[in-house]
Design brief:
This protein is mainly β and 249 residues long. It has 3 helices and 10 strands. It has one domain: Beta Barrel (Porin).
Length: 249
């Protein structure tokens, strides 16, 4: 994912350089826009959340095939939020982008987990839908290149935390009752690239950003009556995500 961001940044920089080369006489829009100490805006976008799962033990079937992996099906989600930007100098900004991120994932557990424990199961036992509504709070540092006519590419990085409104962390029921539980709070680091377009009345910024959880988000099953085929072999479960945002300032 990091390599993708580098490639995108190089592409954006090349695009801006080409615009400068072939449009030397271009009139600057909002020439003094970035001189304000503080600026505000909002963003709309899409998100694509997944999981990185580490296992306690790699399990194989009678033919030596790996049966540990939990399949993860992801869906495109929607994002909306606000932007507060503080200018430090011509090339450096500090940004706060609180937002609401709605996502949906599905986990499909291997049948061998149940067979190994001698637990009878049906199709509903193998599937768990993970609906998440995150209130996301990122604090980011934006490193910009020199403005080229009405374009300015940048890279951005920082740390964030989120509150999962659908976590079920305090729910006494676990997977044996159909409840997949995740922790309420998560911490991340973020990396991304984007480009500022200076239009006649406002600044428009498309960007793409990767989000990587730092802490384990899984709430293990209670397993009062024995081992859990859903969570016992999971060492850690961490969110991985991609944000595509369109910002208006």
């Amino acid at each position: 994912m990091k390599k993708i961001f580098v490639i995108l940044f190089i592409t954006l920089t090349s695009y801006s350089a080409s615009a400068q080369l072939f449009n030397k006489e271009k009139i600057l829009n909002n020439e003094n826009f970035d001189k304000d100490r503080f600026s505000w805006g909002y963003f709309l976008g899409f998100n694509h959340y997944g999981f990185k799962i580490d296992y306690k033990e790699e399990l194989t079937d009678a033919n030596g095939r790996d049966v540990t992996d939990i399949q993860i099906k992801t869906k495109l989600g929607f994002s909306v939020g606000l932007l507060g930007n503080m200018r430090i100098n011509d090339y450096l900004d500090l940004r706060f982008e609180p937002g609401l991120y709605i996502s949906n994932r599905e986990l499909i557990f291997p049948e061998e987990n149940f067979q190994a424990l001698g637990i009878s199961y049906n199709e509903t036992y193998l599937h768990r839908e993970v609906k998440s509504t995150y209130v996301h709070f990122p604090l980011l540092v934006k490193f910009s290149a020199k403005r080229l006519n009405n374009f300015k590419p940048f890279v951005v990085g920082g740390f964030s935390t989120s509150l999962n409104l659908n976590s079920n962390q305090d729910n006494p029921n676990d997977n044996s009752n159909g409840q997949f539980r995740m922790k309420k709070s998560t911490f991340y680091y973020e990396l991304g690239v984007g480009i500022d377009f200076y239009l006649h009345y406002f600044k428009f910024t498309p960007s793409i950003r990767g989000v990587f959880a730092l802490n384990d988000e899984l709430v293990p099953d209670n397993a009062v009556d024995g081992a859990s085929p859903w969570t016992d072999n999971i060492e850690s479960l961490k969110t991985r995500g991609v944000f595509i945002n369109f910002t208006f300032q």
